[in-house]
Amino acid sequence: MPRNVLVTGVSRRVGGVACRALAEDPSVDKIIAxxxxxxxxxxxxxxxxxxxxxxxIIGKIVNQEQIDTVVHLGVIMTPRQAGGRNQxxxxxxxxxxxxxxxxxxxxxxxxxxxxSSSAIYGSSPQDPAMFTEDxxxxxxxxxxxxxxxxxxxxxxxxxxxxxxxxxxxxLRMANLVGAGVRxxxxxxxxxxxxxxxxxxxxxxxxxxxxxxxxxxKKAALTDATGTINVAADGMLTVRQAARLARKPxxxxxxxxxxxxxxxxxxxxxxxxxxxxxxxxxxxRGMDTSRMREVLGFEPTxxxxxxxxxxxxxxxxxxxxxGARG
Length: 325
Known about the structure:
The protein is of the alpha/beta class. It has a domain of 216 residues: NAD(P)-binding Rossmann-like Domain (Rossmann fold), CATH 3.40.50.720. It contains twelve helices and 13 strands. The chain has a seven-stranded parallel beta sheet with strand order 3-2-1-4-5-6-11, with helices on both faces. Strands 7-10 form a two-stranded parallel ribbon. It has a two-stranded parallel ribbon with strand order 8-13. Helix 1 links the parallel strand 1 and strand 2. Helix 2 crosses helix 4.
């Protein structure tokens, strides 16, 4: 059972709530909360240490505090959170590389939990109905958060080969939704009008923040290992979700993602990311058998319930341009 836990990314919503949940568990003797900026929310009895995981000082912290469990939540899901795409990639990829280098040298370390993403599977017309953890993307993400997730997992697998004594868990989570959660997915559905590719209606799963935090805590405090898909039951399509959110859909050409992003930025909406277009076309589904069988976890909300809790707006309205919902 973990006794000394280090959590990264605590200034952001997921990291902060997960840190607080772990701090409430009496089996955790000490919890160290790490981020480059102080959190604006409570983190319970956790002790905050201001540190950038890109800095080698992270290794000193792990050793001095005799950390046996690292929960890595310090990945940024949107370029706007980081101050630009280059900064996002540097924090996500270089930061993870530095953290794992510190973990490799730490004799006290016994377990690492890494929050990954379903984005690693990409989106394409050749995709299976449901991705299992041993499947790879039919079309590997070439940019954005999806590409960062691919690189992060590559580094984690490298550490697994070098330190087979460390238990590793990678949680490939579906799109997160919840109060204060900022992702390209949430920014898309917060737009007043939703551009959607003409002739397509991608299906997707989500995971509520409450369930995401519960899964992270369970992964940190149990003996489950390996890569695990984590998502709520059921699926929605883009147009079904738009109707639940009472947002009109604007049909656009699938090839116009870059132009729509430019227009969105010029208008100050900043809610559309061109990297999303393939996802809006083809969607993505994950098999969650390992979530139940290995992690022993069951989400409390379905995809529809989680989405409606965050974006639901009551009475449904039709889409623009005659598109069917």
